[in-house]
Amino acid sequence: MPNAATSRLLATQAPDGGWGAYGAASSRTEPTALATLALALAADPGAEGAVYAGRAWLEAAQRADGSWPLGAGAEEPNWSTSLAILTLTHVRPGSEAEEAGVAWLMAQKGRGSPLLAKVLSLFLRDRPAVDLDPELTGWPWAEGTFSWVEPTSYALLALKRRRAPRPRSIESRIREAERMLVDRVCEGGGWNYGNSVVLDDVLWPYPDTTALALLALADRPDLEAVRESLDRLPRMLDENDSVLSLGLGVLALSVHGRDPQPTRARLEERLDGGETGEIRALAWGAIGALDRPDSLGILHG
Fold this sequence. Notes:
The longest helix has 17 residues, at 168-184. This protein has helices at 4-11, 29-42, 48-61, 81-91, 96-106, 115-124, 149-160, 168-184, 207-216, 224-239, 243-255, 261-272, 279-288, and strands at 197-198, 201-202. Strands 1-2 form a two-stranded antiparallel sheet. With 301 residues, the protein is mainly α. The chain folds into two domains: 8-108, no CATH class; 109-236, Glycosyltransferase (Alpha/alpha barrel).
């Protein structure tokens, strides 16, 4: 039976098979990938047609270079390529679309330092504007720009779905991106969007960004950054109980073997209340509401 979130996802699918950021908006890659993934994971026979249509939208929207744009008809490649790949690994694994997407993703590499930090460094001289290792790069929001935590986490989720043994080139990118995430962890655990310190000010972590990074590091429980962040995440969720944060939080706690039930109960309460119209949040909420330790299949395929 569909839960409250999956029922609303089914009701908001556009005639073209995709989903917009909000109900009636034009279809875009991120919400379409996430909604299709959520419905596929729910394994509800009544959603099979919606999953097929969502997959067809993704395959039709893919650019010739293997990337996905923000939405159908957009000209520029988009970071949401990682989410399209992640979804295809579940609904059509090993497809040509998935392979082309991975090839494009592997060619992307974010810069080590943000442009603003480089400008500030010209005036600060020996004092660094940000506290990070510029040699460690992950993935950017836009081609050729700074490596951020969220797009790097999405890329790791997509690449780690490709079961071992992975090509050496993919394994190498995964390991460097993991080191980048560890380098960016906030004091006491958790992740901000890109840095942990700016101009000597310690930045605070966000629950949704932290949960995404923890999902990307699902197979690295040995890392101190992971353990500290898992300890801190429940406290962060007490302060921010949005559907997005709770949905991602449940997934992160579950995949690392922490008790997700108190967080899942709050998530289900929020979903039953129908408080969000954002498709991204609904989709992550729907996935989080599933009672599975590794819903995204990062550990077990």
